[in-house]
Specification:
- The protein is mainly alpha-helical.
- The chain contains 5 helices and 3 strands.
- The chain has 2 domains: 65 residues, no CATH class; 27 residues.
- The protein has a 3-stranded mixed beta sheet, covered by helices on one side.
- It is extended.
- It comes from Dentiscutata erythropus.
Length: 96
């Protein structure tokens, strides 16, 4: 079976962990935790991801396809991130 790897922005929601760190004037623009989950659920469960063969896409809140950063096309940065991730995983696995 195929793996579909995409990234997303879940938006800022009104979860308990945000209650103290967000100014009162900003609270009205926050979305509910349920709405905040929509993009994640869309990317994980929507048949459209497979039907439209979405690979390497970026999704904004509410499952809307967004613009990718120019960093996503930087092969040197991708290689460095891959190596960093491998090293971090190997370090953590060797601690167990």
């Amino acid at each position: 079976e195929q793996v579909y790897a995409n990234s997303l922005h879940p938006d800022i929601n009104m979860s308990r962990r945000n209650d103290c760190s967000v100014p009162e004037t900003f609270m009205s623009s926050l979305i509910s935790p349920e709405d905040g989950a929509i993009t994640t659920l869309y990317c994980a469960t929507s048949p459209e991801i497979e039907e439209k063969n979405y690979h390497g896409k970026y999704f904004d809140p509410y499952g809307i396809e967004g613009e990718k950063s120019s960093y996503t096309e930087n092969e040197d940065l991708a290689k460095r991130l891959w190596e960093f991730t491998e090293n971090l995983i190997n370090e953590k696995l060797s601690q167990n």
